[in-house]
Amino acid sequence: MYKIDINKFKQAFPECKNPNELCNLFDNILSSSGIDTKERVNMFLAQCGHESAGFTRFNENLNYSAKALRGVFGRYFLDDKIASEYERKPEKIANRVYANRMGNGSENSGDGWKYRGRGIIMTTGKSNYKEFSEYSGIDAVNNPDLLSTDISVAIQSAVWFWNKNNLNKYCDKNDFIGLTKRINGGLNGLADREDKLRKLM
After folding, report:
1. In which region does residue 44 sit, left (phi positive, over 0), alpha (psi from -120 to 50) or beta (all else)?
2. 33 contacts 40 by C-beta, under 8 angstroms
3. pLDDT tens-digit series, residues 121-169
């Protein structure tokens, strides 16, 4: 059973404030979840570490300017007037961009904000919170903040996502680019993800 090298972990994630505690949790949770080889563990850590800003951010940042809203969520903000009404209003932004999808209700339901991205791989949408709840036995539907306030739950939510999408297969083929595409939908942040992986290996 592969055990995380704490010194390499600290080198890869210098901004992490509780590396010893985190590594103990990772070792315990990953070893019983099938993420159990050197390649699987380190690719998991590199990807999750990038997604969570070095294990320092467990809530999606939705504090966008009007210009950024047009660039990132253009289909929901078709002109500057609409974008300016939402800029720097994270709750309002989440309710608009996540409305009527991923199991969420309308913009007025508040589901977009309630089920915004949380955890270390940013679980998003009511249907995903529900699936994670069924998988883990943790009531994340009624207590969604657990994914951002309880690091053990944050890790478990990432493991659920990882195993649901059979991501170990990319690790076993040493296909880090394919893994990044599956998680990110593209190759955003690839250089940082690869740098973290190099330091962990």
Report:
1. alpha
2. no
3. 999 999 999 999 999 999 999 999 999 999 999 999 999 999 999 999 9
Q: Write out the H or E segment, with its range, that includes residue 183.
A: helix 176-184
> Is the residue at 78 inside a domain?
yes
194 and 178 inside one domain:
yes
Query: Other CB atoms closer than 10 Å to residue 13's CB: what's the count?
Result: 24
Dist CA 77 CA 83 (whole Å): 5
**What sign does the dihedral 160-161-164-168 (CA atoms) show?**
negative
Instruction: Kindly state whether residue 192 falls inside one of the protein's structural domains.
Output: yes
Count of the separate structural domains present in the chain: 2
Both 78 and 50 in one domain: the answer is no
pLDDT, residue 153, reads 97
Global pTM value? 0.91
Please, are residues 132 and 168 in contact by the beta-carbon 8 Å criterion? no
Q: Measured between alpha carbons, how far is 40 from 49 in angstroms, rounded to an integer? A: 14
Q: What is the Cα–Cα distance from 105 to 46, expressed in whole angstroms? A: 33
CA–CA gap between residue 126 and residue 105 (Å, rounded): 9
Residue with tokens 């330091």: 199
Domain that holds residue 13: 6-58+120-126+150-200
Same structural domain, 41 and 19: yes
Nearest to 126 by CA among 117, 44, 136, 194: 117
